[in-house]
Amino acid sequence: MEAPTSEASETETEAERITRRPIPPAEGWTADDLDRIPDLPRYTELLDGSLVFRSPQTRFHSRTIRLLDNALLRQAPDHLDVLRQMTVRLDRKNRPEPDVLVFPIEANTGHDQTWYDRADIVLAVEVVSPDSRERDREVKPRKYAQAEVRHFWRVEQDDDKGLPVVHVYELDSATGSYALSGIYHDRLKLTVPFDIEIDLTAIDRRPGESHGAQ
Predict the structure, then answer these.
(1) Is 94 helix (H, G, I), strand (E, B) or coil?
(2) What angle do CA 61, 51, 48 make, to 5 degrees?
(3) Is residue 44 within 8 Å of 21, Cβ to Cβ?
(4) Would the pLDDT of 19 be above 50?
(5) What is the three-class DSSP state of 183?
(6) Which long-range contacts (CB under 8 A, 24 or more apart) does 188-193 make?
(7) 135-178 pLDDT, tens digit each
(8) DSSP assigned state of 95
(9) 0.90 surpassed by pTM
(10) Which of left, alpha, beta for 18 (phi over 0: left; psi -120 to 50: alpha)?
């Protein structure tokens, strides 16, 4: 009998991989399940009880996160902390993973911590990717607003310059939804949730590198 070809072996391996995907319960997954399901891909989110897997990220996405994370951490007051890509438990069926988070430092509970509570989130930032446009523009802002996350930024790529454009929102307590307070190109300067100034043109510079450095 001839040995199976490498193509057949690869097909079988893929089939085996598919069958190992977690089968959701009838009522959907819960926020607690996200820490119990084995072999989940990195950056798996939970939205409305369904697992959401991210596609490979672009250089723009990764470098924008780095720029914002470094700048916010450098400028945040001592009582606030900043992390990238940690999940937030909004309710039993929703545990999204913002690209950058700002929260009180006392919300840190230990090195094995995998999520933060919605009540602790000062600012949630989503950098829009090709595979996440609807989620980042529609689904997540609505859920963050319902969870009373006061400040939300949506970051898009400028088609002409390839630079980050930051859409800044603040929760309107009267309507329970976000109100757009500004759209920022090249430089982001705010006084809430604290004094923030970020050079958005520095996306490709190393932290501390001057504008004229090569």
Answers:
(1) strand
(2) 105
(3) no
(4) no
(5) strand
(6) 192/151, 193/80, 193/102, 193/122, 193/123, 193/150, 193/151
(7) 999 999 999 999 999 999 999 999 999 999 999 999 999 999 99
(8) B
(9) no
(10) alpha
